Give the backbone structure.
Amino acid sequence: MDLFYTRATHYLPRMTFEITLKMMLVALAFGLLSLWQVRRKRKPGALPWVPWHGVMFLALLALVAGAAHLPAVWPR
């Protein structure tokens, strides 16, 4: 008996095909936003407030993880 709900099945939804596609869509949006921000002209010496290359890396990582997860949840 699990009194403290320590298993992830108690509080996390199943990672379905639709959730995977939505996560990949959000990652793609963040990737395109960061690509646009990186390519913007800036004043010489001015640093951006957000590390856009890091955001781009995380978005790419989420896209690769989602693509690797798609075969496991593909509808039959």
Remarks:
- The two ends are 34 Å apart (CA to CA).
- The first helix runs from residue 17 to 39.
